[in-house]
Amino acid sequence: MRAILTALVLALVLASPAAQAQLGDIFRSLSGALRGRAEQPPPQQGVTPTLGVRGIDEVDAAHAAPAAGKDYHLMEGWAATRPEAERLAAGKGLVARPVTLKNDDAPAPTTDGGPQ
Amino acid sequence: MKRSLPFFAASLLLAASAFAQTTINLGSIVDAVKGVAKSQQVGKMSEEEEIAVGKEIAASTLGAYRIVRDEKLQRYLNAVGLWVALQSDRPQLPWRFAAVESDQINAFAVPGGAVLVTRGMLDLLANEAELACVLGHEIGHVTRRHHIALLQKETLIQAGSKALADNIQGGGAKAEAKRFLVGEGAEIYTRSLDRDSERDADSDGVLLAARAGYDPNACLIFIQRMAGLKQEAGTLASLYKTHPQAGERAGDVEKALARLEGVEPGSGARPLLDYK
């Protein structure tokens, strides 16, 4: 009995952490079987990613569903074209300017909008 | 002693087989995680992939927030948004803008070029220059791929965990990672991006508004107005979960204004909002 226990302890100590986890699972399964109880799967760990949208409220996000096809198509349908955007700008007297930030490598736009 | 020998041998065999099995699995698990890591470096995600992922995320998000059924408002928002986005270094993205029904004062950017703005935010704006600042901030997050970087970091962690559990092999890891990128649930996006990302986006808001011909000082005025709102207001709850305090941001915006080159201070337009 002492020899058996020694062998098991040695195996556990020498094994990698993953092996230890697997050995732990085996022992739990064995002990569960001996107790006559069904083994529960290990609990889910970690955070479930993600909608990729910063700022969404948790409660609302919990109800987010991929089937909002109609609203998505509406959004697609309302997208502006470049001429429409330029027409709005012209109507408001907006003129694109080649502005940069000091110590910034971002290229300045062309005068018709968009970077060089 | 003789009677205990079979038991001893059986125990050794049990321990050895478990160890051997784990050694084999560990090797393939490491390969899977490396594969995910390679495929998920920010610079290597193609624009096509980014747009595809963004479309799925946008569609999913619109399940959480109802789009405002006001075509005039939506078309106006898209025209202003696109004009501002054309001043960025990624004007070619399929930029889409939408107002969503929510009293919360907030705006959200989705990878690939979709920006959502709440009704609460739109009601707070005083003029079109302030709208340009808000949209410019979100456009900055998209052009700099802030969300993608955060998603990929989480994906790598999740892929690692899942690979340990499921022993995902080789090419399957990329498809699995993409599934995580779209995912279910939004916990990661109820948290904030890092301070540098927010500072960069605020600078982009100032820069893009100025480039688009708006008065960039409107960005500071707007942030100061937000800082003056009572924080107990429920409408600010989601904003402050994910953004630094408006007071802090005012400092960042002031610094960005001081760094502008190619524009006279105080110059630029502050047109009225078409929807007010």
Description:
The complex is a heterodimer of chains A (116) and B (276). Chain A is built from five helices and one strand. Chain A is an all-alpha fold and 116 residues long. Chain B is mainly α. Helices cover 61% and strands 6% of the residues of chain B. Chain B has helices spanning 4-39, 47-61, 71-85, 119-124, 128-143, 146-166, 172-182, 195-211, 217-228, 237-242, 246-259; strands spanning 96-100, 107-110, 114-118, 260-261. In chain B, strands 1-3-2 form a three-stranded mixed β-sheet. At the A-B interface, helix 1, helix 2, helix 3, helix 4 and helix 5 of A face helix 1, helix 2, helix 3, strand 2 and helix 6 of B.
Radius of gyration of chain B: 25 Å
| Pattern of helices and strands of chain A | HHHHHE
What is the number of strand segments of chain B? 4
Count the beta strands of chain A: 1
Q: Structural class of the secondary elements of chain B?
A: mainly alpha
Please count the helical segments of chain A. Answer: 5
